[in-house]
Amino acid sequence: MAVVLIEKLTPQITVLTLNRPERRNSLTIELLNELCAGIKMASDQPSERILILRGAGAAFCTGLDLKEAQNQSKAHSTAEMVARALVDLSQTRLVTIAAVHGAAVAGGAGLMSACDYVVAAEKTKIGYPETRRGLVAGLVMTFLRRQLRERDIRELLLGADLIEAQRALEIGLVNRVVPGDQVMSEAQKFADLVLQGAPNAVAHTKRLIEELSWRAVKEDVDLALKHHMQARESAEAREGIAAFNEKRAPNWTK
Fold it and tell me: Do the domain assignments include residue 46?
């Protein structure tokens, strides 16, 4: 069964659904490969203008599958695929909308942050608990630095606690918070607004927003990937991931 479902909502809108509900859509190499393939397929269609990303089941995405992440031989491949997915999402000419519910955590919050627009269901939990696993949220920092105040970034990444959707709205991490049954209709509402604009004008506007940043997303992701891998290959990461999988508190004094 496909772990990313592709649905043509209209001739101009494609919906990609992360489809590992039994694992709360946690990110594996397989899922990331299918996600990147889906983004490319939609982007390559001339009539396509909007990409909506959502998750099946109880959550949008809870980040890396830490069972797979425990396998050190896959560490580089997983990290590189996460980086590629974030770049592909942010750099596509399509306007990207994250329709988020349940939880968007770690790499899942990263996918959300890489999108142009975010609609979150009430009671959604969002956050970056990487330091509690001995990891560094380096890749998502690329996007947080563009979107949030530094004080809020420090709160999210150093405190590493999950926040409610309403708090995410207050700090600018999401655009809209709506009841759970209205997330897709709200995403569609924004898509309809975008579609009122001229296709080339919208695409050029999106590209200019990126180019006016002092450094390109790809450069920041490459730098962040180095820091991410240093942490990923550390003893702290091995202990943090093992503790999560064994459902115990990590021992940082080992």
Answer: yes
Strand order in the sheet with 117-121: 4-10, 13-18, 50-55, 95-100, 117-121, 176-178
User: Would you say residue 215 lies in a domain?
Assistant: no
Distance from C-alpha of 128 to C-alpha of 157, rounded to nearest angstrom: 6
Q: pTM (2 decimals)?
A: 0.88
Whether 160 maps to a domain, the answer reads yes
From CA 122, how far away is CA 142, in angstroms rounded? 26
Q: How many domains does the chain have?
A: 1
**CB half-sphere exposure, 4, CA atoms < 13 A:** 24
Evaluate whether residue 251 is within a structural domain.
no
How far apart CA 190 and CA 115 sit, in angstroms, is 13
Residue range(s) defining the domain that contains residue 15: 4-180
User: What positions carry a catalytic annotation?
Assistant: 130
Q: What is the CATH number of the domain that holds 111?
A: 3.90.226.10
Distance CA 86, CA 29 (A): 14
Question: Quick one: average pLDDT of 217-226?
Answer: 78
Could you give the CA distance from residue 159 to residue 132 in angstroms, rounded to a whole number?
Answer: 9
Return the number of other C-beta atoms located less than 10 Å from residue 216's C-beta. 14
Using CB atoms within 10 A of its CB, is residue 110 exposed (0-12), middle (13-18) or buried (19+)? Answer: buried
Q: Which of 11, 13, 17, 184 is nearest to 1 (CA)?
A: 17
Considering only residues 29 and 234, tell me which one the structure prediction assigns the higher pLDDT.
Answer: 29
Type of residue at 155: E
Could you tell me the two tokens for 50? 């909007």
- pLDDT score at 218: 79
C-alpha 241/C-alpha 119 separation (Å) is 30
